[in-house]
Amino acid sequence: MDWLRQLPIGQYVDGTGSWLRNLDPRLKFAWTLAFLLTPILAGPIWRLALVGVLLLVTAVSGLPWRLWRQSLPLLLVLALLVGLLAALLPAGAVAPGQLNRPPAELRLAPGQQGVRWELVRWGPVQLGPVPLGPLVITRRSAELGLNAATLLVTVIHSANLLLLTTPPEELVWALSWCLQPLAPLGVPVERLGFTLLLALRFLPLVQEEFQNLLRSLATRSVNLRQLGWQAGLGLLLALGERLLANVLLRAEQGAESLLARGGRLIPPAQLQRRPVQARGLQLLAGLGLLLLLGLRWKYGAR
Questions:
Q1: For strand 130-132 and strand 135-138, is the pairing parallel, antiparallel, or unpaired?
Q2: Each residue's pLDDT tens digit, 72-131
Q3: What residues form DSSP beta bridges with 126?
Q4: Of 17, 18, 27, 53, which residue is least crowded by CB atoms under 10 Å?
């Protein structure tokens, strides 16, 4: 039951031998933003290329295999399931508009054929005693499935790589450095940085509470199949409510202990961070980011 502790999701893991750890936190933050923002309004080729680049960076990052050998395959399987579900669900149809010219005037050139709208059709499908209609994958639903699967991988795994290789203090300093121009406008940069630091510290507590809830279910030998879907859904909602209550209780206890010990806000500029090393690596990462943005501008819509 301790499998959650073996998946360092959202936690910094110290070590050597990885060039990602020596990269400037501002560059890592900018690369993560690129993986999060460039898929917006992008074509399927660009989305698949981002997933390939992310997997390539993971493979050559120098991180120990045990850090991502369990989380990454699970994420890929989850993305495939989500993409398949999105492709099988109806994508919605647009009501046809009124024709301005009679259809008889439309003539296709010899040898010219229209684009096929339906890609795959199975059916009718029989699910036990319940008959279902045909399962149809159209071009629109296939695009929705691809977008959902690739976005899930890029969002979760890019953020996970950032948190794995960047100490919370350095990440807070990088975010505060990016938001510093907004400080004259009244944006509480220091308070936001301190809130982010506390949130990163509470991630292990969330995993611990979730682990305790799963252990309580295992010790009581709860069988969701015997409960039925209605009782099983009620049990899952109760567990979610209990998880939220426990996390909020831990947060309140942490805040009270912080105030009791005379806690105070630390300016991000005073946070201890490692000196930037490998200037050539920083330059190469910056040029790679500019190249990625240029390719997105020119080929991203395809």
A1: unpaired
A2: 888 899 899 988 888 877 655 555 556 566 655 555 555 445 555 566 666 665 555 555
A3: 131
A4: 17
- Which range, of 27-31, 47-51, 168-172, averages the lowest pLDDT? 168-172
Six token digits for residue 109: 């050139």
21's tokens: 């750890």
> Could you tell me the two tokens for 266?
């630390």
Q: How far is residue 302's CA from residue 295's CA, in Å, rounded to a whole number?
A: 11
Stated as kind and residue range, the H or E segment containing 169 is: helix 168-179
Determine the Cα–Cα distance for residues 215 and 227; give it in Å rounded to an integer.
18
Kindly tell me if the per-residue pLDDT of 223 is higher than 60. Answer: yes
**Partners of 120 in the β-ladder:** 137
The secondary element (H helix, E strand) that includes residue 129 is none
**3-state DSSP assignment of residue 274:** coil
Residue by residue, DSSP assigns 1-57 as --TGGGS-TT-----SS-TTTTS-HHHHHHHHHHHHHTTTT--HHHHHHHHHHHHHH
Question: Per DSSP, which regions of the chain are E strands?
Answer: 118-122, 125-127, 130-132, 135-138
In sequence order, which residues have a C-beta less than 8 Å from that of residue 30 and are 6 or more positions away? 289
Where along the chain do its domains lie?
1-91+134-167+273-302, 185-272
Query: Which residues, listed in sequence order, are joined to residue 132 by a DSSP beta bridge?
Result: 125
Measure the CA dihedral 219/225/226/228, to 10°.
120
Rounded (10°) angle between helices 189-219 and 168-179? 140
